[in-house]
Hints:
- By secondary structure, the chain is of the alpha/beta class.
- The protein has a single domain (3-254), classed as 4-Layer Sandwich (Metallo-beta-lactamase, Chain A).
- The protein has helices at 35-45, 59-62, 65-72, 148-159, 174-184, 189-203, 213-219, 228-233, 241-254; strands at 3-10, 14-21, 27-30, 51-53, 75-79, 91-93, 98-101, 104-110, 119-123, 128-132, 135-136, 139-140, 166-169, 211-212.
- Helix 1 (35-45) links the parallel strand 3 (27-30) and strand 4 (51-53).
Amino acid sequence: MTLEIVTVPCLSDNYAFLLHDSTTHATAVVDVPDETAVEAELERRGWDLTDILITHHHADHIDGVEALRATTGARVTGAAADSHRLPRLDRAVRDGDDFAIGSAEVRVIEVPGHTVGHVAFHVPQAGAVFTADSLMALGCGRLFEGTAAQMWGSLSKLAALPPATLVCSGHEYTQSNGRFALTIEPENADLLARVGRVAEARAQGRPTVPSTLAEELATNPFLRAGLPGVKAQVGMAGAPDAEVFAEIRRRKDRF
Length: 255
C-alpha cells in the first residue's frame, strides 16, 4: 500500500489535504475551504474523490463541502458532537472511532479548544495526523469556544503521537507564529533555524505545512508549556502546565 498526501492551497491562507491510496484508488480530502481548488487538483492527478473528512464547523473549512459532494458523490465524515452545525454527515464519529480510506485506517481524536467539537484524523500507515486548527505549525488555534485546559489536553494527546508524524494543519500562519514563538524562547537554536527555513520557503512561495511533530516539540511554544525553561521564561516557574499554556495563549492573542 502506498499513501500519498497532497497539500492544496485554498482561499488566502487555508489548506485542504488529499490522501490517496494507490492500491485501492480511494481518495479523501480533509476539509474543503474551496471546492474549485480541490477539484482542480483531483483533475490534475486523475483521482476520483471517495471521502470528505471534516475537522470542525468553521466556514473556511466546510464552505465547499456540499458543492464537492454534489460533483463527486463522496461520503462525508465529521464529528457526531457537531453534526447539528456541519454539512449532512454520512458517517458521524467520536473519539477513538476508526474507519478506513481504502486500505488505510483512520483514527479519530477529539481535540476541543478552538471549537468544542473539533476532531483530528490520525492515519498511522501514512505517518500523518490532520489537525486543522488545533495543533498548527509553530502554533495552535485560538480558543473561540473551548477552554485553555481543553486545548492543553488536546495538544497533549497529539504530542504523544510518534515524533516522525506529519502534522497537516489548516493554515499558512507559520511565519507570524514563528515571530511570536521567538518572544517566548528567543535563544532556542532549533526555533531560530526553523524561522529561517520558513522565511526561505515563503519567499519561494512554498507551503510550510506539513511539519513534523518532532519539529513542533522542539520549537512550538504551545507544546512546550510544560518545560521548566519555558515556565521560567514567562515568569511562571513551578506553575501547572495548563496555566502556563493559558498564559502563552493570552500573549499570542495580544501579539
